[in-house]
## 1
Amino acid sequence: MDRRLAALLQEKFGERLLTPVRQRYDESEIRVALADATDTLRTLHDDPALRFEMLIDLCGVDTGEEMQVVYHLSSSTSGDWLRVIVPGLDRTAPRIASATFMWPGAEWMEREAYDMFGIIFEGNRDLRRIYMPDDYRSFPLRKDFYLADDASRSPAAGVRNMERAGTPADATAATVLRKSPGV
Amino acid sequence: MTQQMRPSLDDPRVAIPAESTWYEPAPIPQTERQAEFLTLREGEMFVNMGPQHPSTHGVLRVIIKVNGEKVVDLDPVLGYLHRGVEKLCENADYHQAICYTDPLEYVASLFCEAAPVAAFEKLMDVEVPLRAQYIRVLTMELNRIASHTLFQGWMALDLGGITPILWAFIERDEIVDMLAALTGQKLLYNYYRIGGVNGDLNHEFMSRLGTWMSRAAAQIDSNLALINENEIFVRRTRGLGVLDAKTALKMGVTGPNLRASGVPYDLRRDRPYLVYPELEFDVPTRDEGDSLARYLVRMDEIKQSIRIIDQVLHEMPDGPVMAKLPRLLRPRPGRAFGAVEGPRGVYGTYAISDGTDQPFRLRIHDPSFVHLQLVGPLTKGNLIADTMAVMASLDPVMGGVDK
Amino acid sequence: MAWNRLTPAGRVLAVLLPVLAIGGALTTALLVAFGGAIAATIGANLPIVRFLVASVVTFLISVPVAFLLIYMEMKIIALMNLRIGPDRIGPAGAVMSVVHGLKVLMKEDYTPPSVDVPVFTLAPVVVYLASFMTLLVIPFAPELTSMGFELGLLYFFAIGGLSVVGLMMAGWSSFNKYSLLGGIRAAAQAISYEIPLTLSVVGIVILTGTLSLPKIVAAQDGSFLDWFIFRQPLAAIIFFIAITAEANRTPFDNAEADQEIVAGFATEYSGMRFGFFFFAEYVNVFIVSALFSAVFLGGSNPPIHINLNPQILINLSALGIGLPLIAGIAPVLGTLLFAAPIWFASSRVKGWQALVAGFLIFGGVSTAAVGIWAFVMLPPVASLIWFLIKTFTLVFTFVWMRGTLPRARIDQLMGFAWKWLLPASLLNIFATAFAVLIAGR
């Protein structure tokens, strides 16, 4: 548990943090608003005291009520790990600035998040489906995407097609099976 | 205008429009990058490699834009092995999720178990018994050697040498059989449990391990002697696909590929997990960042792994191999990121719990996925044959890339 | 009718016997009537008849040679890879390659819809013809050369170069990008390596003053120090590398690099057409090995002439009726001779076991004796055996290289040919000519 890092993050980002820095095991966690995301990432990368130069992971999360984008950063010099959560993306039309301006390697991870959640990363040069075929219409990892097995325990009666044609806008009309607003 | 009709080749009784030639219609570019890729200049053509091709590891499809023999641009197409593991894990309980992540990287599947298990243990605040930690280190290092020896064979095979892969399989088979004696499975071990491992080391495993350890170093050296000094091999890999440290960090490269570029970043040392802090080992690095360096770093890692195994066998304490846990696991709501240093890089698992017995979200990060992005930038301007050398040296496994 | 009660073998006999009888009678009658004329025609056109017979025999031996080489390669590479290799069909899997041949014969010969059909069909034939036509000038032994004519070496390079045309035809007509790349690679490689290949033997032509292969072999008569590999070592190295590339063998098998361009020019071929390519490759390996051993390893000359002056000259006809008697008695006596020590050696050996062992040993010893006798007494046999030993040593070297080396890249390959082999071969010509000028032959 690195108290120095927590203090540093609190000092650097101060009022930008939506919640206080949380630390558990060897991970630290901060939450920043959608508008501050790009600035925060740039500061984390460039600041000589922080130097989080490695983007270990980038992923989308669907909490059932909103979308999040989660970055896991690591510093190759100090070995610190940091999780940056950007909550509050609109479920109907999730949009966020791309991280490829700093980490070109984020391109495919953003493509994956787009493919699975429909999150649009503005500034990504190659934002298209990566796993699913090009003509696929829905986003499989969203919480309103039903697996075939879910039909039996679905609150809505009847069977839904697994691959339902739809856009993010009308996808919200479907029942969300599992919500976890606290995440 | 009447459309010309001609008999179908599959069934001559069926008539199809004659305009539909053998050529597929050109795909409509969806993005800026794709539009750039699909534009052919004078003298260029697309060569489609895969998904059935002798040297794409697994079912990868690579569209290569070539000008003669020269690769102008390259676009990997993924998804042929996509199984939706992340979605499946959301609908399985915590124990079942481990089985789903297991076959992700079938070459080194213990690491694909270790990462989610580490995340789940953080979620549940479980303390793993010391002996179980040692057993995990032991089995993971064995699996790392198996994976690297296979890499050596593959690399040589992609460069046209057929003997090294069969020599490499001797070591790999022995390790795989050894682990099969321990876990009951040859490939997808499903051995790690939340809070420990499935069973204690047994007699057959230990006797096989002892026999193998007594000859491993010499045997692996003889395998390396097959190609390490080979003039053709060295000439085809040296200075090819050079990845400098700065680009590597920006591209999110981890593992041996990053260490071959001169960044000594190893999770086992920089973010220690299990009992690695108590073990003594070096982190081999090289500065060249080319295909040869990536190959040699892996070969050096094999020797370090043997060293770690040796220490583990000497220092392993007695005791239980499984923590005491309730049968039904319901962690408190929370988030955890478990990461291990695998043979290809950082395997990460981001697990979110919402208080039920199923993970709310399980994100799996596979290093092969990131490394495959590099094939394009690294092979541009080289020859078709170099694509294989670069791809083999990055060592992607499609099971992990496609999830 | 008794026909229905006959077994299939009986039916065959019932048909064949009358046919043979009538055919034999007719042939005899024809020979009696026109035999003189036929003999006169053959006598008048002896070179043509000899050429026809030689071509047929050459064509017929090329297929077993390919089978033998394919088996050799499978087995040797398997042993190098620590595998067992073929071991099911025939002793130690020796018939495996014949079964492979039958397999390609029986597979569907598929012509893809958009290929250029005439060119696509002709390409394997051209490749195969080009490789087996070069067999004609190989001097197996002084008396066993199909066409020992004066321009043998030139003929070899001319016809050997034709196979590139076939590979280009296959690559172009297949309507496949891999095939196209493979065909172009094959053409580029063959053209580049043809030049050092041809230039490397110019030194030998200067030394011998002839292009005829039998004469080049004859020029190396003497001890092994007279072989051109010792007199022209640089030429030998260049020639060996160039024939490796000519025969498309590892490390220069870029034309069919399966890790890069699937199977190169042969990607779209299946069945017997693929079989032609496959056979041509192995016949080529045999031919280039044979050429190397003829030009550089003294061909059919033994390394050292040992004059045993054999005095065992039995005039068989002088024995008269004694010959069949000896032929009948010798095996019995020999068997007993070899069986007796075995029978006496151990009481556990039964009498019949000793007899069987004695008979087998006698068989082996007498065969070996006859073989050695033939080797010593008949120059063509000895020459042929020496020639084949040298050739198959080289074939083994090619297989060994395939089991050991990775593939060179195409640009390294071309660069090597133009930047190193070509100047080296020119240097060799210059040095040889200079030496000849100074020393005066």
## 2
Amino acid sequence: MTTKNQYGFEQIKISDKLDEVIKKAIERAKKEKKRKLIKLTSTKLIESNILVLKSK
Amino acid sequence: MDKIITTDKNLNDELFSDLIDICKENLYKIAFSYLKNEQNSLDAVSETIYKAYKNIDKLKNREFFNTWIIKILINSCKTVLKNNKVIYIEEYDKTKKDNLDILETDFKLSINIDLYNAIDKLNDKFKSIIILKYLEDMTIIQISEVLNLPEGTVKVYLRRALGVLKIELGEECV
């Protein structure tokens, strides 16, 4: 991903905060994925319990 | 990067971080070219990585990770611009009839041209194309994949954008 011609884009300096921002974004996404998984699992568990109770 | 992508079918966290590590600086540069502001660019990159991590399973062919993440980034930049209520003049579209029969080599620019500052004069879609073409060195085909536009349309937009830049920078520069 290297650019031969710069056309002035070389003026862009990479922010010192970039790594920190990326780390936080990944952590936020991981948490969100985990939260969704827990929600899905617990919903399935509740549904299966209801079915068991109904069958009784 | 292709090696990393194809050798592991289950893109784990470590691999995702590696891929991001490879492209993070370019992602930031693209975002900054759009937004010209550190905080907004960081916001766009952050949102991009968040969305990419969450939706990585939806990426069918991991060879296209780079194209895919740039696509997400461009949409994130557009959202930031929308939230900041940046208004673009759409008059550039109303230019004379375009000839679709254009070669890739027709878009070579003078090396000394300052596109970085000039692209502020362009509207959203023209800006995207110029950034992908001259910052990322993407081909017309790659740009059409990222922006979901037909190749012919990309060529037309690119030509129109260069037309606008010609006026802004002076005929001799472009």
